[in-house]
Amino acid sequence: MRLDQVIENALANTTGEDVFIYRLEGVKMSIEIGIHDYERGVRQQVLVDVVTVVSKNWSGADDIGTVVDYDYLLNGIKALEERQFDLQETLCGEILDIALSAEAVRAAQVTTRKTDAYKDAEAVGLTRFRRKG
């Protein structure tokens, strides 16, 4: 199911709750990723976009404690730079785990793009989506 469909479903099935779509876009990672020998021991730039969906009653308070703070997500993604990944699928899954760790988040979509993979392409990428049960 595409994210726009999930959002439509969330909006159609809400009982007075607001739906919040949080975006963290263009996070720059320097990470060892890839399956080829020439990728081993070499850091590549990966760009990460994360979209999270939150459905909750809005208190109207202008207070960071009443919303989902982006810090947990950015800090979690940046901590992954210390690891090595073979596949973007695995990296996306790890970031999905981080995104969904916030109690209020009901669904998340993660896109990764390796910008150094091919000289004739801007990037090679992957998008994964997951909903909480």
Which structural class best describes the helix and strand composition? Answer: alpha+beta
Tally of alpha and pi helices: 3
Shape category: elongated
Mean pLDDT equals 88
User: Whole-number radius of gyration?
Assistant: 16 Å
How big a fraction of the residues is strand? 35-45%
Notes on the protein architecture:
With 133 residues, this protein is an alpha+beta fold. It is 25% helix and 38% strand. The chain is built from 3 helices and 5 strands. It has helices at 3-13, 71-79, 88-100; strands at 18-33, 43-56, 84-85, 105-114, 124-131. The chain has a 5-stranded mixed β-sheet, sandwiched between helices. The chain is elongated, with a radius of gyration of 16 Å. The mean pLDDT is 88.
Helix/strand layout:
Elements: H1 3-13, E1 18-33, E2 43-56, H2 71-79, E3 84-85, H3 88-100, E4 105-114, E5 124-131
Parallel strand pairs: 1-3
Antiparallel strand pairs: 1-2, 2-4, 4-5
